[in-house]
């Protein structure tokens, strides 16, 4: 009985926070890392009691990396990770993130790597990564089943990790405008590759090295699926 009551309380609190009545970061610990000088790493631990933005905790110092691991951050809200001119890498890992609002990430001119793996995301909406220029994006080990048709457009991505999700369809529209070298989509639920499956990758087609579809549910590949590609390594074990 006590366990059930506690469960209901936690669910109620989650619903309240999802509705926008809680700060984005409440009782969250983060680690800030400085890479300067190059041969030395400086680590600084910060406790955030209640805040809607990380910028005030990061900008006063010369940090390049943000690490949030195994915390409780159900929703990343608009502007919550933005306006940080020196940050090169952001990790929000295994922290129960269920939703990312469009506009969460912006004004991050030096950001190269974004790691959101091990969370509870079920959907990536259009606009979540708009105007974000990163080389590597990791969304593996989530529960993602839905991707907006322009989810990753014009991000300048080289490496995209979507392993261990619940994606059941493939659309090259997702990747338009990215010079991708590697797309990792192992352990999903993709069943079919349609005709012209890489239409929106043609501009950079000769630069893609690997697409990993291992441990999917592929049953059908259209005869024209690979039209327009000059070179591609496919892992479909």
UniProtKB/TrEMBL annotation:
The keyword Metal-binding appears for this protein: no
InterPro entries: Dev_Immune_Receptor, Leu-rich_rpt, Leu-rich_rpt_typical-subtyp, LRR_5, LRR_dom_sf
Protein name per UniProt: Uncharacterized protein
Keywords noted in UniProt: Leucine-rich repeat, Repeat, Signal
SUPFAM superfamilies with a match to the protein in the record: L domain-like (SSF52058)
Pfam families hit by this protein: LRR_5
Region forming the signal peptide: 1-22
């Amino acid at each position: 009985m006590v366990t059930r009551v506690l469960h209901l309380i936690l669910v109620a609190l989650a619903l309240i926070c999802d509705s926008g009545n809680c700060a984005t970061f409440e009782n969250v610990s983060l680690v800030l890392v400085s890479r300067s000088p190059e041969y030395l790493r400086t680590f600084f631990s910060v406790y955030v009691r209640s805040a809607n933005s990380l910028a005030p905790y990061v900008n006063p110092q010369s940090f390049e990396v943000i690490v949030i691991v195994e915390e409780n951050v159900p929703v990343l809200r608009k502007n919550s990770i933005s306006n940080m001119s020196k940050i090169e890498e952001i990790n929000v890992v295994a922290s129960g993130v269920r939703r990312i609002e469009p506009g969460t990430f912006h004004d991050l001119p030096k950001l190269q790597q974004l790691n959101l793996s091990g969370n509870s995301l079920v959907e990536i909406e259009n606009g979540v990564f708009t105007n974000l220029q990163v080389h590597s994006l990791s969304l593996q080990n989530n529960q993602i089943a839905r991707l907006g048709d322009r989810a990753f457009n014009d991000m300048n991505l080289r490496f995209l990790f979507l392993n261990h999700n619940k994606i059941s369809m493939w659309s090259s529209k997702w990747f338009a405008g990215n010079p991708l070298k590697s797309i990792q989509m192992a352990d999903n639920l993709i069943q079919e590759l349609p005709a012209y499956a890489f239409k929106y990758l043609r501009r950079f087609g000769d630069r893609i090295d690997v697409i990993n579809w291992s441990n999917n549910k592929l049953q059908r590949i259209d005869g024209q699926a690979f039209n327009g590609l000059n070179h591609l390594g496919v892992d479909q074990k």
